[in-house]
């Protein structure tokens, strides 16, 4: 199993290209099931989750062709990929696959919308929480679907004439359920209004792609999304928006290690609340025409309290990384995690590097220490993995992060991007 080895102490200087967003690419790829034409996606990141989802969609009858760079070509990262699903060959998504890639549960929306039937495995939980799908089921029932849970599968059937447009109020904000119901509603009979919908930029990106395919959608990015169903969708060409979580992650890495870096192909407006927190922690951040310029002062990090919230609040996907940064703040910071019930597994690993963190329920209290010391640590989930890399960049000596398959789910060529800026980061096979 691969490990990542980090030797701390070097400031970061240079340019880091930001990849397309994992959390936009996944729903965009799934939306290819809604049309028999070709959906072309540009700026698709090369990530384990994306590769797995493409394999899963192949089982449903989606033909996939990648063009542009040969594999392993160093320059550039983005890929252009064509998805074409003339007919859906299988309306079942198996447990073996869905359990590996939670977002693949979202195929239930397009399968129901296009085929009127779907048998999708319950995804099961993951390290950061149980992550139920009750909101998906309630929402699809609201659109007229009959749903049974049989032997760990959601068996769903649309009414004879197809799903029916309805008014549905989410009892709590759910990104995945918003994506899924929005996709399902594009082919429903009549108008669907989704209230208390997720406002994430990835929801807006999906809505923009669906509109390019002929869907009638208003209000994406606001709490109320209105979808007027159409009889069919066509193909389109769409560019995956930049990854705001990757952007925030590297901004925190510069704030921690010190130095001066430009993050290219991204947009500060995608992560304003995170930028505010990183600025408050002492980094100088300036938006540029094509990205963000950051100057970090690793020896002068200020404590900042954050609470994770649905967009536009501080993103839960940057919580672990920000905790990494706070381990060397000159004072005490508090982080409250309100989205997932078990997203503090990085705490005990950061403590192995010398961090001083105590937990009380959903609140972590981080007392900044003057020095961290490298040690072997273990990645426990996707974002926790990179919080350990961030800490390792400032730790004295060598840090080895094991179980980096977690990291490969959501960070494209991380060691290459950091090494190009002067960090000592390498992947050790084994
Ligand atoms: C692939 C992708 O885009 N993943 C993101 C997506 O995950 P995902 O879409 O799974 O997260 P949700 O927004 O649905 O989850 C928010 C909260 O709602 C709960 N919930 C969700 C659905 C449901 O039916 N019932 C229920 O109770 C979840 O357990 C969680 O506590 O949004 C999360 C919150 O921004 C991010 O951390 C993930 O990176
Ligand atoms: C939790 C995340 O992803 P997923 O929903 O795919 O687990 C994440 O991207 O931080």
UniProtKB/TrEMBL annotation:
It holds the Pfam family EPSP_synthase. Phosphoenolpyruvate binds at residues 22-23. Pathway: Cell wall biogenesis; peptidoglycan biosynthesis. It is an enzyme of class 2 (transferase). Keywords: Cell cycle, Cell division, Cell shape, Cell wall biogenesis/degradation, Cytoplasm, Peptidoglycan synthesis, Pyruvate, Transferase. Cell wall formation. Adds enolpyruvyl to UDP-N-acetylglucosamine. HAMAP family: MurA. This is UDP-N-acetylglucosamine 1-carboxyvinyltransferase. It comes from Martelella mangrovi. The gene is murA.
């Amino acid at each position: 199993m691969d490990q990542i080895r980090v030797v701390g102490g070097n400031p970061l200087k240079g340019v880091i290209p930001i990849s397309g967003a994992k959390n936009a690419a996944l729903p965009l790829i799934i939306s290819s099931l809604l049309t028999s034409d070709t959906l072309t996606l540009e700026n698709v990141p090369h990530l384990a989750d994306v590769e797995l989802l493409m394999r899963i969609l192949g089982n449903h009858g989606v033909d996939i062709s990648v063009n542009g760079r040969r594999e392993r070509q160093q320059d550039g990262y983005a890929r252009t990929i064509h998805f074409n699903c003339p007919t859906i060959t299988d309306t079942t998504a198996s447990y073996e696959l869905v359990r590996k890639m939670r977002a693949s549960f979202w195929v239930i929306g397009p399968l129901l919308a296009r085929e009127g039937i779907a048998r999708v495995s319950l995804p099961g939980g993951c390290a950061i929480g149980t992550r139920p799908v009750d909101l998906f089921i309630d929402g699809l029932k609201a659109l007229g679907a009959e749903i049974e849970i049989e032997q760990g599968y959601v068996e769903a059937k649309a009414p004879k004439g197809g799903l029916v447009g309805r008014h549905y109020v989410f009892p709590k904000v759910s990104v995945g359920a918003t994506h899924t119901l929005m996709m399902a509603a594009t082919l429903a009979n009549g108008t669907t209004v989704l209230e208390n919908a997720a406002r994430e930029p990835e929801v807006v990106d999906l809505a923009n792609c669906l509109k390019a395919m002929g869907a009638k959608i208003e209000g994406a990015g606001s709490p109320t999304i209105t979808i007027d169903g159409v009889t069919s969708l066509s193909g389109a060409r769409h560019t995956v928006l930049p990854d705001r979580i990757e952007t925030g992650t590297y901004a925190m890495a510069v704030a921690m290690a010190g130095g001066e870096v430009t993050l290219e192909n991204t947009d500060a407006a995608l992560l304003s609340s995170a930028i505010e927190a990183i600025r408050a922690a002492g980094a100088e951040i300036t938006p540029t025409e094509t990205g963000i310029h950051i100057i970090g002062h690793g020896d002068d990090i200020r404590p900042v309290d954050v609470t994770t919230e649905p967009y536009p609040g501080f993103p839960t996907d940057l919580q672990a990384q920000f905790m990494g940064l706070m381990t060397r703040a000159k004072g005490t910071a508090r982080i409250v995690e309100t989205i997932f019930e078990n997203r503090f597994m990085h705490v005990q690993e950061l403590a192995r590097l010398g961090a001083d963190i105590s937990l009380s329920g959903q609140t972590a209290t981080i007392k900044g220490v003057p020095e961290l010391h490298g040690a072997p640590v273990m990645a426990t989930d996707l974002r926790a993995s990179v919080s350990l890399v961030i800490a390792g960049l400032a730790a004295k000596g060598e840090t080895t992060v094991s179980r980096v398959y977690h990291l490969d789910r959501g960070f494209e060529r991380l060691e290459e991007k950091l090494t190009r800026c002067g960090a000592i980061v390498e992947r050790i096979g084994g």
